[in-house]
Amino acid sequence: MTRTVRFHEVGGPEVMRLEDVEPGEPGPGEVRIRVDAIGVNRAEALFRSGRYIEPVKRFPAGLGSEAAGVIEAVGPGVTGFEEGQAVSVVPNFSYNDYGMYAERAIAPASSLVPRPDGVDAVSGAAVWMPYLTAYGAMVEVGGMRAGDVAVVNAASSSVGLAAIHTANRLGATPIAVTRTDAKRQRLIEEGAAEVIVSDEEDVAGRILALTGGRGAEYVFDAVAGPGVTELARAVAADGTLFLWGAQSGQPTPYPGFDLGMPALNLRTYTVHEITRDPRRMCRAAAFVASGLRTGAFRAVVDRLFPLEEIVQAHRHMESNTQFGKIVVTT
């Protein structure tokens, strides 16, 4: 038996329970992992509360799609991985099928990446989802180039910070947007060329001023909701507004008609566009691994929680006070 986080109804963090569950043996194409660290993602809070893009199909339900650990057992047909190997798990599966909030867990082999020497479990659980998300939108889909301007909303999140680092590595200019002034200096230290405080400033006006009226080639919005119209005002002609999150929980309008039908590209995006496509995932893994090797990329960890404090970890995430990744250790 292994300690596993499950929930029996949708709701707030308090619905999660730590239960003893038999992890089972890996089936074809699967491995069993001794989980050492788990990256906590906002998508998991949405799934737990019944507000995710995919509904909960059965109870009890599990959580978690980003982890680091060591392979304990390999199922039939798995090649390229072996028992005792240190790996990270990246999100390429449904929460209805697998969950990493546990001391031991079954995972599809397709979700694994080898953990390089020198990358500990906490870092291995914290780096992959943010950088794969940023790489996919910025490089694979967006085709970002040196000299472009990238506006990053919710910039102090793990994905926001990865986007800042990625923009810098590509030679683009990252402009960070954050709600309060409290995180301004840290965002500058992480590489933001400019920081806009949305509670105090006219966001679109500042972006247009910083770009000489041109606007930003790319805007990456993790909040969505009514604010999309204001952000769209600051997108350059033929630029793209990516919606890669919906933290506001409010309806999101299409802004094109209200703004006079500009040449605006608006699209949703999730990391699954990368992790579920083997060719894209191969390129993304090489890009992220090279960034880790050179020091351009690194885990930014806000706080560690033990597995028995998973409720507190989710409450901390929903407070929106964190800077970087929340990681749970087993």
Automatic annotation (TrEMBL):
Tell me which UniProt keywords the record has, alphabetically.
NADP, Oxidoreductase
Give the source's domain of life in one word: Bacteria
InterPro entries linked: ADH-like_C (IPR013149), ADH-like_N (IPR013154), ER (IPR020843), GroES-like_sf (IPR011032), NAD(P)-bd_dom_sf (IPR036291)
Q: Which SUPFAM superfamilies match?
A: GroES-like (SSF50129), NAD(P)-binding Rossmann-fold domains (SSF51735)
Q: Per the record's keyword annotation, is NADP included, yes or no? A: yes
- Tell me where in this chain the Enoyl reductase (ER) domain is found: 11-328
**Secretion signal span:** none
Lineage, top ranks = Bacteria, Bacillati, Actinomycetota, Actinomycetes, Streptosporangiales
Where are the bilayer-spanning segments? none
Quote the protein name from its UniProt record. NADPH:quinone reductase-like Zn-dependent oxidoreductase
Q: Which organism is it from?
A: Nonomuraea jabiensis
Q: Which GO terms describe its molecular function?
A: NADPH binding; oxidoreductase activity, acting on NAD(P)H
